[in-house]
Amino acid sequence: SQQGEEDPQALSIQEGENATMNCSYKTSINNLQWYRQNSGRGLVHLILIRSNEREKHSGRLRVTLDTSKKSSSLLITASRAADTASYFCATDPGGFKTIFGAGTRLFVKA
Amino acid sequence: NAGVTQTPKFQVLKTGQSMTLQCAQDMNHNSMYWYRQDPGMGLRLIYYSASEGTTDKGEVPNGYNVSRLNKREFSLRLESAAPSQTSVYFCASSEVGGDTEAFFGQGTRLTVV
Known about the structure:
heterodimer; A: 110 residues; mainly beta; 6-stranded mixed sheet; 5-stranded antiparallel sheet; 11 strands; globular; B: 113 residues; 7-stranded mixed sheet
């Protein structure tokens, strides 16, 4: 079963635009993480936000977490062609069984 | 700094054959994981090792076995491969559990015919 579900499943934007991806989950969590996966490669960690945090920034990335709605969003500002990838949210309900969603495929057109 | 190294990168098996996927990390991490990734389903946890000497089942352990050989290495074995095990397999490691970021290998693309 998947805890995190991303929305939309796919997103196509022009270079320079902002991209917003959403993640919803079902049970309480210790933290939520976002990962990026380029085609044919492994996942790369982007950012971790803990359950007692509401917003976190890293470069052009902004992540929000709303534990009352069990949802998170990832905003990529001023997107570039190199941002084309799949983005996954991963939730940690405690312990070692981090659960990944199905991902959002982002395509940034140059 | 290699990070997480998986071998092989590609493999084709016939139904019923066995094979072992190897994984090694050089970051002195305590926890290691095996995931499979199928189209449209994200990553699903097969087995994990919280620390050296321990292994536990994840979400989809049937048909697989694992060995935490030492702190660096965590192998995944398919005893009798089935077409349903056609997938991309990822090994990952983290300092301790899900509270820290995970580092992933490049994946093994396995096809069972």
